[in-house]
Amino acid sequence: MRPDPREGELPTELPSSFAIGPYNIGAPVILAPMAGVTDRPFRSLCRELGAGLVVSEMVTSDTSLWDSRKSRTRLDHAGESGPISVQIAGGDPEMMANAARENVRRGAQIIDINMGCPAKKVCKKAAGSALLRDEKLVADILEAVVSSVSVPVTLKIRTGWCPDSRNGLTVAKMAEDLGVSALAVHGRTRACGYHGQAEFDTIAEIVSAVKIPVFANGDITGAEKARKVLDYTGAAAVMIGRAAQGRPWIFREIAHYLATGEQLPEPSLDEVRDILITHLSELHRFYGAVMGVRIARKHVGWYVKTLADSDDFRKTFNQLDCAEAQHASVREWFERRITRGAKAA
Question: Record's family (predicted)?
Answer without folding.
Answer: Belongs to the Dus family. DusB subfamily.
